[in-house]
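Batch manifest line 635
LIGAND: zinc ion
JOB: complex structure
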Amino acid sequence: MLDSISGSRSRYDLRIDSSRMTELLSRATRILQDVFGYSAFRSDQAEVVTHVAAGGDALVLMPTGGGKSLCYQVPALLREGVGVVVSPLIALMQDQVAALKEAGVRAEFLNSTLAWKQAQAVERRARAGELDLLYLAPERLLTERGLALLDDLKIALFAIDEAHCVSQWGHDFRQEYLQLAVLAERYPSVPRIALTATADEATRREIIERLHLRKARSFVQSFDRPNIHYRITGKDTPRRQLLRFIRESHAGEAGIVYALSRKSVEETAQMLVENGIDALAYHAGFSAAEREVRQTRFLEEDGVVVVATIAFGMGIDKADVRFVAHVDLPRSLEGYYQETGRAGRDGAPAEAWMVYGLADVVQQRRFIEQSEAGETHRRVANAKLDAMLGLCETVRCRRQFVLEYFGEASAPCGNCDNCLEPPAQFDGTEAAQKLLSCIYRCGEASGFAFGAQHIIAVLRGERTDKVLARGHDRISTFGIGADRDDAQWRAVLRQLLTMRLVAVDHEHWNVLRLTETSREVLTGARRLTLRQEATGSTARRSKERRRRQGAEAKSPPPVAPGSSQEEALFEALREWRRGIAREHGVPAYTVLHDTSLREIAARRPQSIESLADVSGIGATKLARYGQAIIDVIGR
Ligand code: ADP
Ligand code: ZN
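JOB STATUS: finished
ARTIFACT:
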């Protein structure tokens, strides 16, 4: 009896709950449409928004471009009080606030760029309850003054953006993020939502642990980006390979090229410019103003290629980036996936392309060995690099490999180089034995160790000065590898390095040494299957095939180029937008996105009411700009 009563009671509670949720969802949807001008929530957004609006904690994992911001912006507007957003990136914070203000939301930020008077004014408005959203740099929040301010406010929620910054092993670690657990203690009744695009299991656990989010509900969205085609090929002449890639596959299109060093960034950009490509260099060595100019050109003009260090891209919300290229090996899959995720946010086909070679492996291992970090840190860095190398050398579907790393099961994708053109494999045991014994014999003969170039020369039977000087033309391994060319031997060596069957001694001119496990291969106890290096011509063939396949299945077809009349209107709208952006001192995309302008140009709405249907135009923008846009259309 009791059981049945309590049973019906809980069903009743559930009913209340679900009707409350329905009500919250309809209010949330109204905000989405009125304020942000979007017709519907994407995938997980609706659930996150209602959960947080109802007072729950949440951990949100979505890929870059997935739409994380709305997950806290909408509930902040729904709930009483101000939504406090912790964000580590000042530039990003400013752009977000600018975009919110354009949409008519009362948003402000507090960070080191504000003069004391300005900061005071923001604090005053917050205390007077005049703000919907307040963005705070973590170091600012944690000061006594910051916490005292929070104590005085009615807080709708805390959003902790880029939450992976709590991870000491991550690429963006921020000391202050560790102290954000104080929010849980100090404001236990305020819902907290942590968001990130970094999704490996360890980072997830660390976020939950360090931010005291054990009761939080996790929302893990699929990390798949089906419209991105992945291609990783061997590196021989990286700049020429890059040039060919852009010319053959992405002429006139916007893209980002990532390189490791400033020098490499500048030289690559210069090479592209000399070859008629509209390219710009971007790295932390430029002044903030110069970086801003370059970023704005990339965002506003068509078909600009930015060559950058990883300093570029955080918070870049350009929808039509058609390719992301890596000419140097990234340090981790997290970094790689975040960077490649900047391609194709508009859902149209895009490409993630990378060249990588022996030197990358050697260099990255050296960075780790020579870093000042402690032993544990080095171990983690090596494990991350191993995963990255695993992706490069795998013969399986690349996408499946990455998604698996992020804890997501999937089928082979049909839209990566390995799926479209399965790489040849061969029994590499004999080749490996030749290489390992050559390293051994050279060392035995001269009492020294040697680098890759020399070992391969001996294998191939080349009588270089060094080979002759060392008498290595007389050892038993001289010339036993004449059947493979230099590139093929490098590919074999690269894979042995990846498997740690050979080590590089960074202390001594990068010479090669055998490892404890080399013996297993030398004695034949362990057999190896290696990936055959693709030659240039097959890489080209695969491009053709990809084109054909891409057009049929998986990826949506590219947006057809509009009529010339449509193009003219789009240009006119952009010109108008540039004027507004300049007047307001904000980036153009915070006024209206390209996608909104495209839609207007295609549909040519004739009245303010029909303009309201365009995605990205909410009530405030309609009131502010509606007439001006109709005027541009009518010209
Ligand atoms: P993230 O922070 O996850 O990288 P953002 O929050 O910046 O992504 O969103 C990426 C883009 O998608 C933005 O241009 C945003 O305005 C747009 N967007 C997000 N949610 C929606 C939606 N429900 N409908 C239409 N556009 C959306
Ligand atoms: Zn695949």
